[in-house]
Design goal:
213 residues; two-stranded antiparallel ribbon; 2 strands; 2% strand; globular; 10 helices; mainly alpha; single chain
Length: 213
């Protein structure tokens, strides 16, 4: 597996299509657990990235992730902008100026992204956030890498682990965000940030898996 700049940009486009399709669902979900603006914020930030696609095409991964981080931080409202921005900037520092990422480097990138979000948000797995999705995916991916599994198995583990992490947020009590202040702390509803994080991992894996066939 070799993740290229071109594939990463295709992933962003793929994710945006999924996000557009799920607009009503995400907005409804966030209206129950938050303030209803998660979809709008995510759409605004990632649409801006698509608009910059031609500028991002010629960059190394380190340069691209830094630019993505700065763009999201300046365009996405609420906590998501700061958290995603911090994640991408840490990822840029981790991968450096390379043209391709193999499975191990991708895992390192996602781990750095996760660590930055946890540190900046002062949150951890189990707090009912996007962290649960990303943590589940990274842990499953690293387990398969340690077993020297093939790329397809590693990617599938990333996707299935992320799905399990997302689904686990349904019965969690929120420790962060607006859901924390609700009487039931959001129990019985998926966290919208966990859902959109899963859509991203799903899109990334699907793009990579299509090249494996």
């Amino acid at each position: 597996m070799k993740l290229t700049n071109e594939q990463y940009l295709l992933y962003l486009v793929t994710f945006m299509k999924k996000l557009e399709k799920e607009k009503d669902y995400i907005t409804q979900l966030d209206s129950v657990t938050g303030d209803g603006d998660h979809w709008v914020n995510m759409d605004m930030g990632f649409r801006k990235l698509i608009d910059q696609k031609s500028d991002l095409e010629a960059l190394t991964f380190g340069e691209m992730f830094k630019k993505i981080g700065m763009t999201i931080m300046s365009t996405v409202g609420g906590s998501s902008g700061v958290l995603y921005g911090s994640g991408y900037i840490r990822a840029a520092q981790t991968v450096g100026d390379v043209q391709e990422l193999d499975a191990t480097k991708l895992a390192d990138m996602l781990q750095a992204f996760l660590n930055a979000i946890m540190e900046r948000g002062k949150a951890k797995p189990g707090d009912k956030t996007m962290i649960d999705t990303l943590h589940g995916g990274v842990e499953s991916m690293r387990q398969k890498l340690a077993e020297n599994a093939d790329d397809a198995a590693v990617l599938q583990a990333l996707k299935s682990g992320a799905l399990a992490g997302m689904e686990s947020t349904k019965e969690m009590e929120a420790a962060k965000g607006r859901a924390y202040y609700q009487t039931n702390k959001g129990v019985g509803n998926l966290d919208p940030g966990a859902v959109t994080m899963y859509y991203q991992i799903e899109a990334l894996v699907d793009v990579l898996m299509s090249d494996q066939r």
